[in-house]
Design a protein that fits this description.
Number of helices of chain A: 20
Largest interface: A-B, 50 and 50 residues
Order of helices and strands of chain A: HEHEHHEHHEHHHEHHEHEHHEHHEHHHEH
Oligomer: homodimer
Strand order of the largest sheet of chain A: 2-3-1-4-5
Strand content of chain A: 5-15%
Helix content of chain A: 40-55%
Shape of chain A: globular
């Protein structure tokens, strides 16, 4: 969930200054139109301790006309509040139509804190999250625009900030709490990633924002909020279906548009004895897959990647290590007529393996949020809601005991070009290159953004993404095989 | 939940014959249009054992063109199925677009059976229900039309049928199971009413159909299915928002249009010593409300009823029994500007009482599904989804420990006319009668249907409706006071 928010995105002082004035002008204009509109904007401001939630809200106050904003923090429940059902405290501060309410923490704080401290069990936590989903749906059904921000810091960075903060206000209640939270960083991360995963719905998506660089954090928040309001106003005027972006709108500067792919070290190369290593891993995989068969555990492996990234080669190295009776490779191309007459997940459900077997998907359900998104084959609201549908689907697999592996094989544009040209110039490889490949290549940046969203929204504890460094094919195969064996070993 | 399906609704042989031909013609026409359309129809056929689910489906097969239908029953999981995640068995039989799939029991059977036998706990059951809601939303988001029928029999009737059935097929597996189920009638009712309550959503509503009279059962099923398909086809052609009826479409005959209100015995009269009895109950109420205060339990009482049914008088008899410091009466009229700028539930949330106090709502949130529905103040999709919103709201109250009482004071049209005329002819009562009252009176039948839906969808175990016989005012007051005291006594 949070990998995509530890990338070191940043905005320079100069870039910030250049963009701030324009942003403020547009925010004020949007706010004026909002006052006439028939819906409230509810901004949820959440995230790890020390990420500067208060500073973001102050900045927004500086940009906006404060007459149309109310801000509420939810500290300990008051006497008044404790005596009523829990949600009463939120109902009492709901912003009226035409205004903007900023809620610190909101309905998320208590469940996450309780769960992180193990004061409520997993079931009670799930119940709370279901309640949140219902509550938010009720608000958005009624027309509210919900914009939810989660500010993330890496473990090290949080510890550093809490330390720093502690020095400036000794013994204050806040710094005491913050220290306490920092100690439980991992528990908090687990609880909050689960909360975000369950409540990241099409109508009320989360925007996870990297909070390390303050200028990046504030500018991204401002632009995302602005975009959300503007799109909603447009929708109301044109009565079109709602069109919510799935990523926070980072400023269009180099330091701010880093994606998870930029953190893959493509310079990695296989050492000389790679073939020996590969054979060793294949033998291990052979043993492990038989062991899985005996234990009745099935395995699903998903291979995605750029055109010419070497998916096929990697899959062949994997299958070479598995008894032919135990695996099946499903190649996903254009859907058949029969498949087109069903929900898009149907074609994947039908191939879910029986106990003990391995199914390898060469491309997969992720096409929905990649090619279908980019090419417009799926409507915006369709692919937007499919992150959650995919997470639900994968959860059903992993809950049933399926070991789920997901590989994205990454290469850079230069390497792709080299391989395209090689294919075109090699007679027996020409069939592998089509006009479509060249078209996709032109949309590299759009795909990059889509891949970043995909990893951010579907990399879960039970089904993490592995980003494979693919410029050196042999290194990539080694990484795939090694991950495959490690995961199986850990799960069996 | 099931009160509204134990009314003895029926259709005579002659009425059935008269309507069947027309229904079949229209069903076939709708089915033809469906074949061209871009959505599947998924019919869920569920209900108590012995209610004749198989007979209904056979009847539908007789009416429809069988080429466009697939029927699936979910018996014990096959070997194949057990080895995959549970929902695989449902995915494999999903009807393609343009066709109709009839699913016996479906995803509801297993959770309800497991819960009724106490083989899963309440938390696991809730998780299953949440999964169902997500699954059904995914289907309807994708365009599927989901029509869910629940066939109900009273306890006595089920026992009779199982007995009868047992005689005809001795020792068969079915009859053995049916007997087993009949023994656990109450457990099944509890589990299934919870399941229906949680999964009765705006996009996939339940139609609870009384199964005692076979002709009523089949005709109502046919008409409801037809209506659902026709409305959906119209919507697609006109691209209007979906417009789902909230009640099953009973045939328009006398025996079939009985509502819960027809089962209220309006001939009941107070005995002569009613005043003494009322004073006794008021004294008891005084003690009980102080006891509730000491225990920190709050009470919310909702009064709804026909115009001139005597709500005011009944409320005054209740408040006369409570210390003035402990209660508050909230009269709900037209919303204020401030209230109009919020979600419709906001105005009720703001008055939720603190611990130990009593809040009486003179009219309430139920206006949403009564006057707002009938007068068109709320859009169809708005009031339709509010049954669930209301149930969620009330659940938050009762979970917090609020004792929730809901009264509908019923009178018949003649009695109302008498009271209207009396008001008009009595100078000091004239202000109590307005043109609106006469207008509402003209819509008596529409209100009756709305009240029936309201009781069917919002009478829950923790917050049941009490239907008060109001023709004799003094009897009504006695019934209200007695119910009030009994509920408090049971809860404290």
């Amino acid at each position: 969930m949070f990998e995509a928010a530890e990338l070191g995105r940043k905005v320079s002082k100069q870039e910030f200054a250049e963009r701030e004035r324009d942003l403020q002008t547009r925010l004020l204009a949007a706010q004026q139109r909002l006052a006439e509109a028939k819906f409230p904007v509810i901004v949820v401001v959440s995230g790890v301790e020390g990420s500067g939630k208060g500073d973001v809200v102050s900045r927004l106050h500086g940009w906006l006309d404060t007459r149309g904003i109310q801000t509420h923090a939810f500290w300990d429940e008051s006497d008044e509040e404790r005596q009523r059902p829990h949600y009463w405290r939120f109902w009492r501060v709901m912003p009226p139509k035409g205004t903007l309410g900023m809620l610190f923490g909101s309905w998320y704080t208590q469940p996450i804190v309780e769960r992180a401290h193990d004061r409520i069990d997993a079931d009670a936590f799930e119940r709370e999250l279901t309640r949140i989903v219902d509550f938010e749906r009720m608000l958005t059904d009624d027309g509210a625009l919900l914009v939810k921000f989660w500010y993330h810091l890496s473990k090290g960075e949080q510890a550093r900030r809490v330390e720093e903060d502690g020095k400036s206000r000794h013994g204050s209640r806040l710094s005491h709490l913050a220290k306490e939270y920092a100690k439980r960083y991992d528990d908090f991360t687990e609880a909050s990633s689960r909360a975000l995963r369950v409540t990241d719905t099409g109508n009320a998506p989360w925007y996870v924002i990297e909070a390390q660089n303050r200028r990046y954090r504030d500018l991204t928040t401002g632009v995302t909020l602005l975009e959300s309001i503007e799109r909603r106003l447009e929708r109301d005027e044109a009565s079109r279906p709602i069109d919510i972006r799935s990523s926070a709108m980072a400023p269009d500067t180099e330091g701010a548009s880093i994606t998870v792919l930029d953190r893959v070290d493509l310079a990695q190369q296989a050492s000389e004895d790679v073939d020996k290593e590969i054979r060793k891993l294949q033998a291990q995989l052979h043993r492990l897959t038989w062991k899985a068969w005996k234990k009745g555990r099935n395995t699903v492996a998903v291979f995605e990647g750029w055109d010419a990234a070497g998916k096929g080669g990697a899959i062949r190295r994997v299958t070479a290590g598995i008894d032919a009776r135990l695996y099946r490779v499903i190649t996903i191309g254009a859907p058949t007529d029969e498949e087109r007459a069903q929900h898009y997940l149907w074609r994947f459900w039908r191939h879910v393996p029986r106990k003990g077997f391995v199914t390898i998907y060469d491309r997969s359900w992720y096409g929905r949020v990649l090619v279908e998104r980019i090419e417009g084959f799926a409507e915006h609201h369709e692919w937007k809601r499919s992150y959650q549908e995919i997470n639900d689907f994968e959860e059903q697999l992993t809950e049933h005991g399926v070991v789920l592996l997901k590989f994205w094989i990454h290469i850079d544009p230069d390497e792709q070009l080299r391989r395209f040209e090689e294919r075109q110039n090699t007679p027996w490889k020409q069939h592998k290159i089509t006009d479509e490949d060249w078209r996709n290549r032109d949309r590299w940046d759009a795909y990059k953004l889509a891949i970043n969203d995909m990893v951010a929204r579907t990399s879960t504890h039970a089904a993490p993404w592995t980003l494979v460094a693919g410029n050196d094919k042999r290194f990539a195969r080694l990484q795939v095989l090694r991950t495959f064996c490690e995961r199986l070993q850990a799960e069996l």
